[in-house]
C-alpha cells in the first residue's frame, strides 16, 4: 500500500495513476447495466417502457435523476440514445459494443 498522508491532498485519480490501476468497480457496473439493458430492450415488456422513459405518470419534483440510458450513452462512446436502442436489437453488435467499451475502460 502507498503511504500517503492525508495532508498530501492528492486526488483519487492521481493515486490511481501512481499505482497504475483503473477504476474497476465503475467499469464492471456499467458493463452489467449494458448487459441488462440489452436483455430488457429485446423483451419489450414493462421494463422497456420504464427504461426508455415512455411510461406515463407524474414526475416527482426536484432535480431529475440520471437515466441509465444517458450513462450508458457516454460510456459506450459517441452516439445518440436512438443509435444505442437500434444497436440493442442486434445481439452480436451489442456484445461487441460492450466488449470494446470494457476494454477501453472508459
How many individual helices? 6
Major β-sheet, in short? none
Q: What percent of residues are in strands?
A: under 5%
The share of residues in helices is 55-70%
Gross morphology:
extended
* Tally of strands: 0
Structural class: mainly alpha
Uncertain residue segments: none
Instruction: Write down the secondary-structure element order.
Output: HHHHHH
Amino- and carboxy-terminal Cα gap: 25 Å
Rg, Cα atoms, Å: 18 Å
Mean pLDDT comes to 77
GO molecular function: translation initiation factor activity
Keywords: Initiation factor, Protein biosynthesis
Protein name: Eukaryotic translation initiation factor 3 subunit f
Organism: Plakobranchus ocellatus
Give an overview of the whole structure.
It contains 6 helices and no strands. With 106 residues, it is mainly alpha-helical. The two termini are 25 Å apart. The model has no long low-confidence stretch (mean pLDDT 77). Helices cover 62% and strands 0% of the residues. The protein is extended. The chain has helices at 12-19, 24-43, 46-52, 68-76, 81-88, 91-104. Helix 2 (24-43) crosses helix 4 (68-76) and helix 2 runs antiparallel to helix 6 (91-104). This is Eukaryotic translation initiation factor 3 subunit f. One of its GO terms (molecular function) is translation initiation factor activity. Keywords: Initiation factor, Protein biosynthesis.
Amino acid at each position: 500500500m502507498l503511504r500517503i498522508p492525508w495532508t498530501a491532498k492528492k486526488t483519487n485519480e492521481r493515486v490511481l495513476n501512481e499505482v497504475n490501476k483503473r477504476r474497476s468497480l465503475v467499469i464492471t457496473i456499467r458493463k452489467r447495466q449494458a448487459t441488462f439493458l440489452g436483455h430488457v430492450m429485446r423483451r419489450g415488456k414493462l421494463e422497456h417502457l420504464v427504461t426508455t422513459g415512455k411510461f406515463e405518470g407524474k414526475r416527482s419534483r426536484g432535480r431529475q435523476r440520471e437515466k441509465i440510458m444517458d450513462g450508458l450513452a457516454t460510456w459506450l462512446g459517441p452516439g445518440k440514445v436512438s443509435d444505442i436502442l437500434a444497436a440493442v436489437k442486434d445481439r452480436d453488435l451489442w456484445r461487441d459494443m460492450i466488449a470494446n467499451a470494457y476494454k477501453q475502460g472508459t
